[in-house]
Amino acid sequence: MASNTNISIQPVTNQLPGGLGLGYDLLPNGTRFSVPATVTFHYTSDQVSDNHPYFLNISHFTIFGIQDGIAVLAVPREIMTGQTSSVTIFESIVIKQDSSYITSSTDIPTDFVGQWTVNGGPNGNSSIGTVSGSGANVVYHAPANLDAPIEVLVECQLKMHEIIFIGNQKIDLLRPKRGVLIRVWPYKEYDFTVKLFYYDSTISSFYGQTPNPPVYSDHAQFDVHLKAKLDAPVIEMSNLQNYPPEVSSATYTLGNTVWTWVPDPYGMMDVSSLTLNHETIMADSLVTVFVNHANATLYGYVLYTNGILPKQ
Fold this sequence. Notes:
- The protein is an all-beta fold.
- Helices cover 0% and strands 54% of the residues.
- It has two domains: 8-185, no CATH class; 188-305, no CATH class.
- The protein has strands at residues 8-12, 19-27, 56-58, 63-68, 70-75, 78-80, 84-97, 100-107, 113-118, 121-122, 124-125, 129-132, 137-141, 150-158, 161-166, 169-174, 177-185, 188-200, 215-228, 234-242, 246-248, 251-254, 257-263, 271-276, 289-293, 300-305.
- Strands 5, 7, 8, 11, 12 and 13 form a six-stranded antiparallel sheet that branches. Strands 6-17-14-9-10 form a five-stranded mixed sheet, with no helix packed on it.
- A hairpin with a 2-residue loop joins β22 (251-254) and β23.
- It starts with 7 loop residues before the first strand and ends in a 7-residue tail after the last strand.
- Residues 59-67 and 304-312 have low confidence and may be disordered.
């Protein structure tokens, strides 16, 4: 490059298999330097928390991105007790075709895949979960029961000898391990408030006799805490408030007669407890809850008084 050129770096989506973080488009594309330039990537501790940073490498596209050369993928990485996650160990490679480069990924051959472990224990155990299968594709099975969330390292030992050079430094890796962190939740907990309302203007004995018949209303409110355990969900109710029913425009006068609607003291809603419809959470993750009432039976009753109304 014989003249000064403005160089820019544009963050882009990292589409490399096993890609970590963002990719970067170095502009203008096709620029050649008279003196070799160095591109330095920085990775975070989270990006290599379950793997060895020496396996990180950079692709040879015009758009540069850092990728995991040999990586372990778990889908999904967060599960609940009793659930499973599919785990695969694969290699990402860059292949030159003519003047361009193609990045692809492939499973590590079975001959190079050794022992799978969970937190260092061969195939795991019932308290931290187990691994079934062999080769590049296995399944992690979460424990059936937990008292608190756990994070486990599902790891594979490779039957290979890797020698990596970083500058003048030689890194000798014999039978390296690659792994992935999986978080297991005992259950999710949810808190919410439920408000129940009931309105009706058709049940009044005045309905059809006046343009604005009395409106009967009743409501209740309570807080709910749901422990969404797959095998034994628990629902708890607190701060229950059963409000007395009300009638808007409770009196109606016809001639010398005054009709007064007296609501039942309990109303149509008198919440007492909650009941779950199933002993387990169904596959569709829906939870059906029955709201139980104690004394709610009637709307109320109507009193009437005959006579001449006093003058106001």
